[in-house]
Amino acid sequence: MSTDETLFENFLTDPYKTTHPVYKNSFLAFSNAPGYAAPEVLLASLYRAIGLKKSDAGVDKRISESDVGKNGTKLAKVIDKHRKSGKKRGELSVEGWGRVIDEVVRSPKQPSQRNKRAIQLTPIIPTCAAFSMAASLKGHPWNPGSFIESCISLGEATRDQAEATWEQLFECLSVSDDDDVWAQFLQRELEEWSPDEIKWSFSNLKESPEWMQEWQKAGVKHPAARFVKDLKHVMLAKNSLTRRQWTTVLESCLRNGLGSHTLWVTKCNRNLYRIVDDVLNGGDVPSIPNIVEKLSTENGFWTYEQAVGSQIKKLAREYIYGRIGLNLLLYRAMEVEPLKELAQRLPFRSPTSIHTFLTALSKARSEFDYSSYQLAFENTLETDPRKTSAKAGVGKNLEEFLRHSLGQRETHEKGLESYDQGYLFSRKGAYSRAPWILAFGPVMTLTLTYCCASEGTGVRTVKDLCNHLGEYGIRISPDEVSNSRLGLSLRTLGLVLDSPDAEGGMVIINPFGTGPRDGM
Questions:
Q1: What distance in Å separates the CA atoms of residue 299 and residue 287, rounded to the nearest whole number?
Q2: What is the pLDDT of residues 225-263, one digit of tens each?
Q3: CB under 8 Å to 13, separation ≥6 — which residues?
Q4: C-beta of residue 120 within 8 angstroms of C-beta of residue 106
Q5: What SS3 class is residue 106?
Q6: Phi and psi for 251 in degrees, rounded to 5?
Q7: Are strands 302-303 and 474-475 parallel, antiparallel or unpaired?
Q8: Cβ atoms within 10 A of the Cβ of 114, count?
Q9: Which helix (H) or strand (E) element contains residue 47?
Q10: Whole-structure pTM over 0.90, yes or no?
Q11: CA angle 502, 508, 510 (to 5 degrees)
């Protein structure tokens, strides 16, 4: 049995574990499949990916996600040891430092964590991320920082621009003399208490596949491009805010960007599978502009104030169907002589290559056994019904990621119920089982309004804000804003000014000043 045949047999046995190499090396596959992640985990993992290292026997190594729990346990032991001895280690007394860790920079626990004693620090500075805020403190958690790297590489037009953005982000995340006194103090003190030598030095952006550069030239509108532009605006806002304020705004930007990119990938799998199935059934091959439209953010993923629970489940299931169908197509195409060479040459690397492959597929319909393909597709879906229905496996992981990274973080700790203000989803009511709806928190509203106001020149209106949200796949019209939760939030935060002369209605106000436009 050849290698290709072995891979195909493995795929048929477990389609969720095995993917076709060509599919894996395409925009349709997650380079680092998302899973559960609390909002602050995204920022903490970014610190670890971009520059957080631990010195081991004179060799600096990246702090991996699986190291975080162990590091936190070691730090807790050092603090407990000094509490017993009363011996001072940094500038603060042992008792004072204990209060900083236990109260001042502590991130609240979620209901499921109430009995856990692990250190949990708000990632206000890089060193905090060495000891807490991994997706899981046991086993081998997924790496959101690597996911962020992929989004930046896809969102920039060239590899050089992506590297420049990554370096600029490292400089902004660094604690320098320009940061507020509190951040500088906390950085020094945490380094003193660290049981190991923690270092902060730049890590190069990971290599990206060559097809990314072709993709940028194709004109496909996708959330990663909008995310990178907004990330640059957020970086320029650093000097206008305190460190705590700025990291909260940055976290909001990450949540929105990664969430929208995830939804875009799921939608592309669904749409491309539908196109392929239509062509195999005798339909016309769509034009390149039509393919671009189908793979663009198009008409969005959801509307403002929409209930999101059922929509997330629906998209996760459709992603599973699309992923299995496209993988199966590639394996079957390898058996058809006119398609074999094209199937090996990354047919999904750009809209042009997709069009070329679909054209060849259309011509080879008589040689492609569609009935056998459809039967294999149905049988493959039945290998594990729970995974097919997104109740387990990759579909469930996607649902967990979107729900927990985009939804308001819930905690039962007294006084910290409103800790998270940078969310996209919130409960529709005040009761615990109220449905989740797409409705921004105050910090998310501030962040998106600031990024929109910083874009371009001249007066920016609510119409511009609606267009800005549309690039993330969020639908709301200017007429709908006034009577929505978004309109109420904009007015409460003082972010809009009624202007009868403005074509887009209300004028939006830049909450952090007007300087950041320079140099964009």
A1: 19
A2: 999 999 999 999 999 999 999 999 999 999 999 999 999
A3: 383
A4: yes
A5: strand
A6: -60, -40
A7: parallel
A8: 10
A9: helix 39-50
A10: yes
A11: 140
